[in-house]
Amino acid sequence: MLIRMRTSILAIVDSLIVLFSIYVGYFILYPYINVFTSKMLFISVITIQIAHHYFAWKYGLYRKAWSYASTGELNSIFRAVTMTITVVMVVQFVLMHKVSFRALILTWMLHLLLIGGSRLSSRLMRDRGIRQKSTATTRIMIVGAGEAGTMIARHVIQNPQSGMKPVLFVDDNRSKNGLEIYGLKVVSGTKDIPKLVKEYEVEKIVIAIPSLSKQDMVNLTKICIETGVKTQIIPRIEDLMMGKVSVNDMRDVKIEDLLGREEVELDLKAIEEKLTNKTILVTGAGGSIGSEICRQVSRYKPTSIILLGHGENSIYNIDMELRKSIGDYTKIFPVIADIKDRPRIFEVVSKFKPDVIYHAAAYKHVPLMESNPVEAVKNNIFGTKNIAEAADAFDVSYFVMVSTDKAVNPPNIMGATKRFAEMFVQNLAKESKTKFAAVRFGNVLGSRGSVVPLFKEQIKQGGPITVTDPQMTRYFMTIPEASRLVIQAGTLAAEGEVFVLDMGEPVKIVELAKNLIKLSGYTEDEIGIVFTGIRPGEKLFEELLNDDEIQSDQISPKIYVGKSMPISKKEMNGVLERLLDMPVDEMKMTLIDLANRKTFKP
């Protein structure tokens, strides 16, 4: 009923506008004309009324919500009015054999102006009402005056309940400098952001340039967080336009945004061939890397995923998560098992007969393993031996071991056990039908062993942040990227290769700490950084390959294959037979010597 009433009112208003436009148009040019006796005018009035209402209906002028009008609605008005005047011209020519061009052009102008004005007045009233009602207090700077930035500004202006008030645009496009968009000034020069933040009393910065390269985005983000003002990033413009996310999904800058790593393009076809309709087993499935491997693998529709882990809660969590996120096609089997329990591991592999195994279970904490070397040996070496030999015994097609950069020239037991596990897998690959491989990478941001959760907790408690040494550096990548590259490397496994992921440039831990402090909205004076000294087993710098392992060619984007060679099988078996019977100090020295390629005779 309300829609009919609204349409009727618009039709009456339009009828009056049409009459006014054509009579004024004719009167201005022909003031002497008799409006009551002119046949030309009479025919034109009847025609313009009929034509206008027809085209107004055709182009939706009675259906549109004019309080939200934009350029699309203006285009509809233009087409409807133009078609209306065109019909009047045709009717005049057919019936009167002449056309009042000047009068109709003037009528067209008045018609367009008045119809457009009547429609857009509701939009103007709405915008004015929004500004008057606005209680927004947070002053925001929008970096980027392109499509994404203007979308943010329009959304914020139209939704004062967001609590934000845009005060200016900043854009490096000099042709926009000094322009106004939605009443906001555009200032050129992102390098001036710190000065502009103070000048305009900015309380929040929104980065709205999704087309920037990763490195340019890193540089821009660093400029923004240096101001000490809260900084957010909008989603990709494609996701905004397709409705996958909304403008409200702006997120805070994360430490991962400062790595500057470009997203990896995976060989999806090769991965699908290895994983689709296959049975996948993941050890350490409840851990940071293991659980993300499970998430990534589930996208390729395997027949089943076996979640093997020692921790009850972590396996329960990833089990529940996957059941909610994937369809009925893939079956999920949570399995509580310890990789050190050889009979149990063989039982599980025999039962499920997986096509692919991702071995992510390991002890990874360097100082903790220095205090518990026997457990490191049992888990990282003998646990790997159990799952790898089970894979060989039951003809698993592919076996991928998740290794670490700490396996290179290790001064510690954790790195030495991981290198020995690599060598065991390499030796087994020589005589097995299973295709084995190991994948090395550095620290993973956000993982349980990462410094980031520790730093965040220290900041939450008011500081200080503890860093071992000002020169300490590490390689970093994100959990999803590391997991994707592990899966990609698995498609390349052939004969015991040690794949190395491109970790980019190493990052100073102290710089990581400083950035986290700024991202948390504090200064270094407020939180503070304390240097505690290098812990047992730690190195200042990590490596990904020994000098004699380096092979420069990439076999896949961001994946290298090392020329790492294992020790002989005889030598390895001799070590394995005696390892757990050795005194702890001898055990550590033996493994570290082997991992560093020093001479060892069993």
Automatic annotation (TrEMBL):
Keyword Membrane assigned: yes
UniProt domain Polysaccharide biosynthesis protein CapD-like: residue ranges: 280-562
InterPro entries per record: NAD(P)-bd_dom_sf (IPR036291), Polysac_CapD-like (IPR003869), Polysaccharide_Synthase-Rel (IPR051203)
Membrane-spanning intervals of the chain: 12-33, 39-57, 77-95, 101-121
Keyword set, alphabetical order: Membrane, Transmembrane, Transmembrane helix
Keyword Transmembrane: yes
Cross-referenced Gene3D superfamilies: NAD(P)-binding Rossmann-like Domain (3.40.50.720)
Superkingdom classification of source: Bacteria
Family, as annotated: Belongs to the polysaccharide synthase family.
Name of this chain's protein: Polysaccharide biosynthesis protein
Species the sequence originates in: Sporosarcina koreensis
